[in-house]
TrEMBL record:
It comes from Chlamydomonas euryale. InterPro entries: Gramillin-biosynth_MTr, SET_dom_sf. This is SET domain-containing protein.
Length: 238
């Protein structure tokens, strides 16, 4: 029910391909990489100052390490390169669009025709769309670019979805989750988003969070968390 489209002033985004209702399933997508609490290296009694910054930094570092060490299919590498264009263009943060996820010039540089088909990541893990296997790792020189990709596009949550975990195995959900789901990264920001996403067993599930979403309507997410309740000038700085 979704497609990649060019969005004036924001470059590429996702839109509805039919009318949607509250709770309608939009995407169930695998990550390029995914980490949980078990992957984190935290110093006991660190200098977090109670703001969660040390934990967040540890998540970013762990996710980057996984991305640097894994082998990629051609489709996965194409998605990573598509996200790179956004991250690299974001380095100059002067001129951020009001309420937008990235600068207008960054999103304008990334057109729907330059992004892989949405279906190319919906495949067996480690297998390419034509049946080929994952075969290449990233060059070490990619590390700096990767930092920008993760900062701009990663999804982070305190845990996987509790209800789904209990309905499934009954085991506690994985905690301190962070992953890079390229499909989710195609959603543009809105302070009044019409989608909600939550992780479950490594997959990211995205549903409509509003009723009566019309055909061709832009699909959006909230990228600034609780700051969405802050005054406009604070949201712009975020």
């Amino acid at each position: 029910p979704v497609s990649l489209v060019d969005v004036p002033g924001q470059g590429v985004g996702l839109s509805a391909t039919k009318g949607l209702g509250l709770g309608d399933l939009l995407l169930v997508t695998p990550p390029l990489a995914y980490i949980t609490e078990e992957d984190l290296e935290l110093d006991e009694g660190g200098d977090d100052d109670g703001d969660g910054s040390e934990l967040l930094d540890a998540k970013f570092e762990a996710l980057q390490a996984v991305l640097l060490s894994k082998k990629y299919t051609r489709a996965e590498h194409a998605w990573l390169d598509a996200l790179t264009e956004v991250a690299v263009a974001e380095e100059d943060d002067s001129n951020v669009a009001d309420g937008g996820k990235t600068q207008p010039q960054a999103r304008d540089a990334l057109r729907a025709g330059a992004v892989p088909e949405l279906s190319t990541l919906i495949m067996k893990e480690g297998e390419d769309t034509d049946g080929g296997q994952a075969e290449s790792t990233l060059e070490p020189s990619y590390a700096k670019r990767l930092e920008g990709i993760v900062q701009a596009n990663a999804y982070e949550a305190a845990s996987e979805d509790l209800d789904l975990a209990m309905v499934g195995t009954g085991a506690a959900p994985a905690s301190e989750v962070m992953g890079l789901w390229p499909h989710y990264a195609m959603l543009n920001h809105s302070c009044m988003p019409n989608t909600i996403s939550y992780p479950h067993k490594g997959m990211l599930i995205t549903r409509a969070s509003r009723a009566n979403i019309s055909n061709a309507a832009p699909l959006t997410a909230n990228y600034i968390g609780d700051l969405v309740l802050s005054p406009l000038d604070v949201r712009r700085e975020a």
